[in-house]
Amino acid sequence: MSECLNELKEILTSEVLINEPLSSHTTMKIGGPADILVTPKSVIEVEQIVKIARKYSIPFRAIGRGSNLLVSDKGIRGIVIKISDGLNALSIKDNKVTVGAGHSFIKLATLVAKEGLSGLEFAGGIPGNVGGAVFMNAGAHKSDVSSVLEKALILFDDGNLEWLSCEDLKFSYRSSILQKVRKGICLDVVFNLQPGNREEIIESMQRNKDYRRETQPWNYPCAGSIFRNPLPNYAGQLVEKAGLKGFNLGGAKVSNIHGNFIVNANHATAKDVLDLIDFIKSTIKQRFDIDLHTEVEIIGEI
Ligand SMILES: Cc1cc2nc3c(=O)[nH]c(=O)nc-3n(C[C@H](O)[C@H](O)[C@H](O)COP(=O)(O)OP(=O)(O)OC[C@H]3O[C@@H](n4cnc5c(N)ncnc54)[C@H](O)[C@@H]3O)c2cc1C
After folding, report:
1. Helix 198-215 to helix 105-114 angle, to the nearest 10 degrees?
2. Residue 181 has pLDDT above 90, yes or no
3. Mutation test residue for ligand 1: of 67, 162, 208, the one with most atoms within 8 Å of CB
4. Largest alpha-carbon pair distance within the chain?
5. Would the pTM of this model clear 0.85, i.e. be above it?
6. What domain range includes position 73?
7. From atom 1 of ligand 1, which residue's Cα is the shortest distance away?
8. Domain end: 82, 113, 141, which one?
9. Within this chain, do residues 51 and 68 fall inside the same structural domain, yes or no?
10. What is the rounded distance in angstroms from the CA atom of residue 115 to the CA atom of residue 155?
11. Residue, of 180 and 264, whose pLDDT is higher
């Protein structure tokens, strides 16, 4: 590990963090340490990190803003590559927006709305970065990333760099090829938007944001929806019907406002949240004979 560390320090322009608590890098404010955490500032740096990790057979994983993550209390072994502000270049030409995967998704939606470009109104309240949004096919208000993405630059785990089209990414509900089938790090994205009326676009995005403020908890750390919706049912409604809103285990609590949100109400551990997830799953199975599956990504050493 020490040789790997030295090589990382040589090639990176930013600090190499050791035993870095991931609670500082997740919106839930939960998570044990990453052996190593790096925040690359260019595509070349990401390529070099992956090369070094492969050379020493050290596992690696990209994260963004940690807004869809539940990291275990023991944390993550190997290298965590935080794709963030260093990789946030943005250029707009006609209707095409080329943006680094580390760009904030909310800020991007706001910027393009001001340019009078339509298509990302749904993203105005989705925390996280562009890369995380591609990985998750993030969406809301009946739209998602797949409806506007033209192509994405992916560094695959074997070191190959490739542009994938929207079709290649095989998007479906909160899912992309990057999750299981072909693991890789999203580095750059091209969105194809439509010219529209600036004021109408901004208004529509504001309506979406207002709706969120009324229906979702903003005052506690959380990771958005915990469960995928078992369509045609909605996870939040099932949890509410089962009388579990406000129910807590340790410091983790089902939000009083939205049944599909678990909040870190009082110094919750990952174990508290995992226990609560299991409890909700078994209650919903017993009451409605429906299997819930998590939308939040559960990662790290258990
Ligand atoms: C209050 C709140 C509301 C939310 N509302 C919504 C919503 O309406 N709709 C919705 O879809 N989501 C929602 N989310 C969840 C979350 O914001 C999205 O899933 C977001 O796209 C995750 O982006 P991130 O950068 O935070 O990714 P992270 O949480 O850091 O990572 C999520 C997954 O993506 C992978 N990943 C991250 N970056 C990359 C990259 N560059 N390349 C490859 N893989 C990567 C990680 O390995 C991990 O598996 C909400 C979350 C919160 C806290």
Report:
1. 150
2. no
3. 67
4. 57
5. yes
6. 2-82
7. 224
8. 82
9. yes
10. 30
11. 264
Report the SS3 class of residue 252.
strand
Query: Is 203 annotated in the active site?
Result: no
Q: How far apart are the C-alpha atoms of 269 and 157, rounded to whole Å? A: 31
Residue of the CA atom closest to atom 51 of ligand 1:
224
Residue of 104, 176, 225, 255 marked active site: 225
Closest-CA residue, ligand 1 atom 27, reads 132
Kindly report the average pLDDT of the chain as a whole number.
Answer: 97
Cα gap 249→117, rounded to integer Å: 45
The number of domains in the chain is 3
pLDDT digits (tens, 9 = 90+) for 204-219: 999 999 999 999 998 9
- DSSP state at residue 123: G
100 Cβ closer than 6 Å to some ligand 1 atom? no
- Helix and strand totals (H; E) in the chain: 7, 19
The confidence score (pLDDT) of residue 218 equals 87
Rounded mean pLDDT, 117-127: 96
Q: Which residues neighbour 213 within 8 Å (Cβ) at sequence distance 6 or greater?
A: none
Among 63, 69, 154, 258, which is best to mutate for testing ligand 1, by the most ligand atoms less than 8 A from CB? Answer: 63
Q: What single letter denotes the amino acid at residue 212?
A: R
